[in-house]
Every structure is written in C-alpha cells, then in structure tokens.
Design a protein that fits this description.
The structure is a homotetramer. Chain A is α/β, with parallel strands linked by helices and about 250 residues long. The first copy, chain A, has helices at about 25-35, 60-70, 90-95, 110-125, 140-145, 165-175, 210-230, and strands at about 1-5, 10-15, 50-55, 75-85, 100, 130, 150-155, 175-185, 195-200, 235-240, 240-245. The mean pLDDT of chain A is about 90.
C-alpha cells in the first residue's frame, strides 16, 4: 500500500495491491464508497494487459525495444499496431507480425492527417498511444481527444531544450550531461506531466552526433520505464504533476 | 597526455603531465615554442597550490566543505579569505582561522558594494574567486575585471531553471530530477562555460524544502569537483565551452 | 503512510506520519493495540533529535561533515561526543565545542580497550553509535551490548571486498566502479544489514590513492544518507535486511 | 590521441585517431617502428566492422538488442551467426535472417559439446565471440583456443556474487544495488579483465524476480557498451585489467 497527500492540490491518493482468491470486488467497492467522500474516484482491479498503439517517425530504437518486449510478453501491454508518418519502420514491425500503417503527413492539412490517424487508432480502442519518437506536433484537438492516453518521449531533460533539435542546443551550450523525459502529452508543447527522467554524462569530445547516439540509449530506457509504470497502474496525475507509487 | 582538437573553434589543446627530476623547464619552453605556431599559448609548470577567495551569502554547506578540505590540505588551494554579504558564516569561518569580511550590499549602490569587494579581493591577489552560494548578481564591470577567475555554483541543471528560485520552479514543473552546475561566470547570467553538472532523482513526495536539502548535497559535490579540476589545471576554455582533461 | 509485507519473514511493517495538534498519543496506542496482534511492536512519537556518539580513527571526511551538520542543526541528531583511537581528530572536533576522547587501543587487551570505550559511551546514553571510519574490529561482546545501535561505513560496495584494504583489492581486480556501504554492525564482519549503498565510476587511470580520494566522497555521502534515514526513524530491520520507508 | 603509462606493468599505451585522405599507412608503420622499441606492438588501421558470433542460452534481452542494432548497422560489427545451447531463441534470430545453430550440451561430454561449437564458430572466422547470457561454463581448452576473443556479460557487479544465481544471493544479502559486468573470459571463472560495470539501485520491495527483471536492463546496457568499446578498438588489455580510451 502506498499513500500520498498532495497538500497543494488538497488531494489524497492511495494504491493498494492485494493478493488472494477470496476477494469480492463488488463488496470492496461498496465498502470503500461508504467511507470515502462522494467525489472520490475508485479504480478497482484494472485489466492486467493494456492495449497500446505506437506512433513513430524514422528512428528505430524505442520501437525495436518495445516490439521485442511485446513479442516475449514482458511489456505489460499488447501492441495493437504501429503507425508511422514515414514508411521506414515497416519492415522492423512486420518481423513481429504487428500491423504497420504508413500515414504520411505530406501534401495534406494537419486536420486530414490527424483524421487518418484517428481512424486507425480508434479501430483498435487502445488504452494508451505511445509516441516513440513521433516527430510531428499534434493539434490541440487531437491531444484533447486522447486526453490522458498519450505518452511521449522527449530527447532532453525537460525543461531544458524544449522544442526541436535538443542535442544540437545541448552541444552548443556545452552541457556536461544529456537526458530524456517521458511525459503525458498536453497542449503545452513539452510541458505535460513528467513520468520519468534520466540523465547521463557527456564531455567535450562528444559531437552532436555522439550525443544523439548516447541519447538514444537513455530515451529507450526512459520510455520503457515510463511504460512499465503506467501499464502497471502506478502513475496518477495531479494537476501537471505525476504521483508515482513505484 | 591528453589532446583534443576542437574542430568548430579550429583549436588544438594538449595537457602533458611529467614526472622526474632532470627536467629543464626553460629548455622545454624553448623547444615547444620552436615547433608550435607563434600564436600558441604554452603554460608550463603551474603552481601547485592556487590562492582563492570564497564569496558567500548565508548558506553554509559549500563553504563548510571547502574550509575542512582547506584545513586538511586536500583542496589543492589555499583559502585566503571569505567574504559574505551577510555576517552569518563568520563563526564557521573563524573556526578555521581564515579571515572573514562582512561586506553588506545594503544601503549602497552596486558600484560602491563591488568596490568594497574588490578592495578586499585585490589585497589577496587570488588565482580564483569561488562564489559558494553568493546570491547577488555581479555587474559586467566586476565580472570583466576578474575574467576567467570567477567560478560559480548554480542550483539547477542548467540551462533548466535559469535565474532565481530554481527549486521552486523545479517543484512546480514536477521534474523527476534536480541538479547543480558549476560554471565560469560571464556577463550572460547563468550562461558561462559549464565545468561540472550532476543530477539526482526526486519524486512526488519532495516538497520545495526537501528539494533544497537534497540539492545542497549535489551543489556541494559539484562545486568541489569543479574546484578540484580547475585547481589541478585540467580545465581549458574554448569559447563558451570547457575542455576537461580528467 | 508506507507499508510492507515481508513474505519471507512473514512480517508486516507500517510507518505513518501524522500532522496536527489535536493528537492524543495514549488513545492512539490503546486503539492500535486493540486491533493489532499481541506480539506487535508499536513505536509512537519517537523523539525528534537522537543522541549519538561518533567513533573515529584518523580520517576526517565523515566526521567533519557530521560536525558541520551538527553545528547547523541539520543532522537530526545531537553529537554528544567523539571518541578516537588516535588523537588525530581532536583539533577538528574541538572547533565545534564537542567533547573528544582519545582512547588508544595500544598496549592493552581488546577487553580493556572496549571497557574504556563503554565507560565513555554509557555516560552519554546515546541512541546510536556511528563508526565514522573507526578502523578497529569490535568484539562480539561489545557489538551485542549495543545491539541495533551501531552504524558503520564500509569502504566498498559490499559484499565485494570484505575486510581490510578494499581499495587496494579493487585496484588489483581492475573494477570499473568503487563504492561504499553503510550498515548496522553485527558479529559477522561486514555482514550486517545494509542501509545505504552507492557506487561511482573509476577507470584505468586511477591509482589506489586516487580511488581512496574518490571513495572518501562516496563514503561521506553514503554515511550521511544512512544517518538521515535512521535518525528520521525510516529504517526497520527484518532479519539481516532493512526495510526503508523513504 | 590518448596515452597511458601503466607504471605497475611498466607499459606504455597510446591510441591515435587520424582523419584525412593523404595517409600512407606503410610509411607510418615504418616511421613508428623506427622510433619505438623492438618489442612494441603496433596496430594500424583495424577493420571497421568486426565479425562476431553470439552464443546464448534462453534469455532474449541481450541478443534481441544486438540483433536490432546489427539490422540497422549500428553495432560496429556483423553478427555472423547465433549459437544456442537451447533452441529457444531460434525464432527471434531468424526474424533478422541471421543463421541460428542449436548445439545442445545434453547427453554428451563437454569435450564433444565444445568441439561442435568450435566447428561452427571456426567456419565464420569471427573476431569476437560474445557470450550474451550463455549459461554454460567453458573448458580451459576452449577459452585458451579463443584467447582474447571471448566477451561475457555477468549478472552482478563483480567481484560480488561470483558464480551461479547472483540475484538470489543479492536478495539474500539485502543489497541496495545490483549490477552487471562485461569482461573478457579467462580460465578463472568470472575473474577476467573487466571492460564495463554499472549498478542500479534496488530496495526492500524487490523480490528475486524483480531483481532479475531490473538486472536484465543493466545487463543489456553494459554488454552493449562493452561491445561498442571493443569493436571500436578502444580497449587494451594489460595483465588482468583493461585500459579503455573512451
């Protein structure tokens, strides 16, 4: 059992993990409701395996890691399909017998592009949509539509280097560490609730391209960690922050 | 021996550590000069123990650590004096028989304040001036005057949370790590060449004040590491970056 | 609130932190006793500031850090006195107006040596005795006498390099990281319940002496972290392990 | 350029990376030979892409990561084939069109088993043989035969928990961190020269199985890092240690 009182939001969070067979779910809900305030949210017995859609652009490292885990059933989720705005990662995805959809963003409005994405996504009714290095900015409408379901990996230790080309900016600033951030997507670009962050050291010998290579490792690790936490129902949102019962 | 070619600045850096007694310093300089381009800078046999002045405000953790190391001769430097814009750390400093000067910034112009600082500093002819949680912004004139000699510890993993109250900002952003940055001071606030950076994990249970407490540990560690590197002549500046031959 | 079920020891642990003024301690104990099994241990409202005795040999880094924190009231403990089996750290200790006792282990039996230690320790009735680089092995009698009160810092990432000269052994083995371990002392040398462990990277350029210098930093950090946890009543022992409600 | 003087082995190591087209390899060797002692070893212009054979048992995580990198040409090596003493990882390997050989160790002597391995390995003339969670102990004859070419990933921060079941041992000891070690294989079990080591924190809530899961992440990361370093010719052996010019 883990509890947390968010004194600023004036909210109470608790997560209880039970074990055993003689467990009457309905009575438990009734009993909890009888002691908790009317406005409380009670989530009982969530499904063990989430359904997810992964969206990508051209980089393989996060997708590859997720596909292998999915194949060996260690992702705590079922990858329903992969959508790419380029066709680059089709072959990798097909190796694991996961459907791949190429939805180009070119020669169409963002509205049309996102309608095409939504048609595919909705067909699979996913619990979460994971942006595994999906390099297009999504519209407020799209983000609102999937409120709370969108998880992104950003290639910097936010709030440093918000926006495009964070490794180039990191190189130019001469930082001695680089990092990655997994966060829920909101309509403030790169400003959503942070789930996981990590950094690794770099030094003066690193070119931008060396930073990109090192960064990929930490992006992969951070996104995987965030997926594990979210899919095990350990992450709660409180305003623009996350409570994580690890 | 360590070398580095900065291809962007088009500069070559080398650091050679020699051992032994039959070592003719003058001949070595002559020989090096004869093969190196005329514009090269050659630094030979720097003095082992630097002279430093430490400037503080009210927080004790960085100063305390430096004073103990100074007392046991493990700082690679000699702390000539401590200057505080408050009198708070006088007692701590006096325990180690190091002169302490209280130079208040109150009821005077920045110009006057800094002239008072300079009078004291110049008396000691320090190699470096270490801002160990000195919480006043120095004027461009002051910074230029001590160009390349000013080392600061900033309480965030720059460029995140530039300016005041970084821990409050970090708390409000809901980051999952906090950090500290030691850097040379330039006239762009918190934008000088970075020497050392580290981060440590935090979580949702951390209040601003918990972050401050955890942050102090890493500030202390980062500033100490930076001082070790600088005082052992391992840090070279190239534009707004540092080359560190560790 | 934090809870943990140790399924191997078949034990349940809980720690509850309350806030507020209208808090009747006696009733709370009675109510808890009425619902808990008879064999349960209930610790209520422990005193906020522990009393500690620090034992040292010649190395200053852990002691210096603790004395400064003690002086600025950030140790969550009150350092009653320091005992050294050498006189080396007397001057440092005296700076902070803390009593220092030199109890040499030379020219006497371990029994006599430890009786002298006990006489001094008992006078102060400490809650904990912190071995801050105390380099003598204590007898089973001594350890039993202060069962659960002795905290030690060991200069390796246990169980690697048990016993003497861990840095030399680490150097000879060519490890790429070194570490430190804070643990409760039991009668199995370096085998007591571990409280905190950390490692830091080293490389082929490190001599034994460089490892010692780097190691001191992590020893200081690990011992301090362990003291914070223990003095805030966050550490529970379960067999030869610790449950830590951080 | 990187240099290192191993004062104990009384040896000098240097690694120079050159760039440019007008580069006469033969003259360079001649010139170097003319100034270096006769017993020096000079390695010039090693081939960029190594040939490797990967040996596995049942665990997929290290192999999967290497196969994906191999597929996207970011391994700095070419995976010639995979040999498993179980058939478990055949399907994964075949997805990437890499030959997979199942060589069971059952119902035969170690001598016969290893002759079968050698027959396959030798066919591919690999530069390195990577034991990516290969859980059989190889004979001194086998190890000698591939002297300096065998890289292993061990699932503990050696020298802690040498031998079998390191995670169970770590759990029983109650350590607060677990780790992984990549090393060259020698005939002293788990005692070969260490290339890369990392640790990650664990706590009292980790079961053995949780440690195994967390450990896999770090095993994957450590083995990958070691392969990058070795395949880029950055690792030199000096006795039972490694010099790494990173």
């Amino acid at each position: 059992m883990r509890e947390f009182v968010d004194e600023i939001a004036n909210q109470f969070f608790a997560r209880i993990e039970c074990d055993g067979s003689s467990f009457d779910e309905k009575n438990l809900v009734l009993e909890l409701r009888s002691v908790l305030p009317a406005y409380s949210e009670v989530i009982i017995n969530p499904k063990v395996e989430k359904r997810i859609v992964i969206m990508v652009t051209k980089e393989y490292h996060c997708l590859g890691d997720a596909l292998i885990r999915n194949y060996f059933n260690t992702l705590n989720a079922n990858v329903c399909c992969v959508i790419g705005n380029y066709d680059t990662l089709r072959e990798l995805t097909k190796k694991y017998e996961v459907p791949f959809y190429h939805v180009s963003h070119e020669n169409k409005t963002k509205l049309v592009f996102e309608e095409e994405l939504k048609t595919i996504i909705n067909e699979y009714e996913p619990d979460y949509i994971v942006l595994a290095k999906f390099m297009r900015i999504l519209s407020p409408e799209f983000v609102s539509h999937y409120e709370g379901k969108l998880i992104n990996i950003h290639h910097s230790f936010l709030p440093a280097f918000i926006g495009a080309s964070p490794y180039r900016k990191a190189f130019e600033r001469g930082v001695k560490l680089i990092g990655a951030t997994a966060h829920y997507v909101t309509n403030d670009l790169d400003e959503g609730p942070i789930i996981v962050q990590q950094t690794i050291p770099v030094n003066h010998t690193f070119t931008v391209s060396d930073m990109v290579i090192s960064g990929k490792e930490i992006e992969k690790s951070v996104l995987n960690k965030a997926m594990q936490l979210v899919f095990q129902d350990r992450v709660f949102r409180s305003g623009n922050k996350t409570i994580i019962f690890e």
